[in-house]
């Protein structure tokens, strides 16, 4: 306990030492085992394939997916992934490196901002809270554009509120950084990179009546910097692709926000439980931090607290009002909430206020942790019965039931339960000792191990359901000699692992726009065209779901050879599988993922 106080409580500990400690501690959480799992469908495959094709074609202006134009996102994340591939090679670690690095840098940014605004201890607590928010870590380890946006957007807003301090000596640097990071946010995700900083800053200036800040914000020079960074790509891509502007600004912005065209509609309150779950275990204290900050909005630090509240509320309400909702959209809300919660914990450490931390949150958190531990133990066993209850299993002709492996194995459930109970023990011990530092340190430590160990246990089950790596590598080998690789519906990671373009049968999904640019008829076909292709002289391997296979197999001549199965997916070929050994380095990993039941199912299919 003395060592914890000696580290957390000094107000003038060197910043570089803190940053080094944070990098060492959270480097493991963000990067450990980063490349162990295959790319998860659909997002990771998409955001790995686009930069792979950029490198192959030498064109970093027009993003292409499966070799057709893809304009749903700007290119910053693709460029970062392409650089990562150049440094580390075409592998899963490289595909996820940029997102993980953005997550780690956001933790360091929160530390720097908290230290500048409130003090060293507040910054340190805020960084630890963000770095041990389970959902933040989990999403940073997935190849998503949203973490890149979160870093750029958070950097822009943090630079503004630091520069707005009357005592700040480097106002110019921070204001220009505001424009720079806003431009990068636009290149990361589009117009929200401009809308969010502008909207949040205007609301802050209006509520605090600090309009005089406009005079010191370097608007002319900053605007020029913003345009110099953000505009060139939009000009180049529009010049090369006349249809870009209409698709990107109308379809991907206005229609995405105002309509359900993307089939991602969720109710207005969707992000409330999502935020509570993804910011666990700090979400319960985050609710109190928000209420406390609102009550202190007229205090000495009130304007800074108000800015953080506006930041979190603006983004939260914006995406709640949108007709297109996905879980990662809420990521830019994490940094301001971490700063508010970190400041609250720091304030409560002083004097009699410490006792206020042991209110209803302690009892509720303890109860939730106990329930989570029980669920982690029983879920893998109950999950084995799920196909019987839901009819989602595959029934063989003999009547036996093939079950899908649970997302969490029985052993993994025990490990997760132990980690959860350790967190509950920290809550109980802190309440018994009435010591807030024990509570804070216990939650940090337990959540850290839950991130580094528990998430990997979940990932094994998720990979089985959502990754097609092994089947894609089999398809690559089967079609290596002038063969044709086919996907029933577009499988995002298939061209990445195969290193070649694939023929899409049926639904085009996100490739709908690109498939209509130029003559793509040979690459986007219907089932009747596929049947003719199957009967040709070229080797053809097709990735499809079991249901599609059972429906189409009787019409396939020659009879298909099943090269492999994984979950609901199968890889079939119009040539004999006799010589189809797995690619080097793939066989052991593939066999481990195939249960005895699945081997039997593949035999029945043959």
Question: Which helices and strands occur, and which strands form pairs?
Answer:
Blueprint: H1 2-8, H2 15-31, H3 43-57, E1 64-65, E2 68-69, H4 76-88, H5 92-117, H6 120-131, H7 134-140, H8 145-163, H9 171-189, H10 192-208, H11 213-216, H12 219-240, H13 244-258, H14 271-278, H15 283-295, H16 302-321, H17 334-348, H18 360-383, H19 386-390, E3 394-395, E4 401-402, H20 410-433, H21 436-466, H22 469-478, E5 484-488, H23 494-498, E6 503-505, H24 512-515, E7 524-525, H25 527-534, E8 540-545, H26 546-552, E9 561-566, E10 569-573, H27 587-592, H28 596-605
Parallel strand pairs: 5-6, 5-8, 6-7
Antiparallel strand pairs: 1-2, 3-4, 8-10, 9-10
Would you summarize the structure shown here?
It contains 28 helices and 10 strands. With 606 residues, the chain is mostly helical. The chain folds into 3 domains: 16-262, no CATH class; 364-466, no CATH class; 468-577.
Radius of gyration: 26 Å
Given helix and strand content, the structural type is mainly alpha
Biggest beta-sheet profile: 6 strands, mixed
> What is the approximate shape?
globular
| C-alpha termini separation | 64 Å
Low-confidence blocks of residues: 384-404, 578-606
- Total strand segments: 10
* Strand proportion: 5-15%
Overall structural domain count: 3
Strand order of the largest sheet: 7-6-5-8-10-9
Helical content class: 55-70%
Provide mean pLDDT, rounded: 86
- Give me the number of helical elements: 28
InterPro entries: Arnt_C, LipidA_mod_glycosyltrf_83, RgtA/B/C-like
GO molecular function, one term: pentosyltransferase activity
Membrane topology: Multi-pass membrane protein
Organism: Oryzomonas japonica
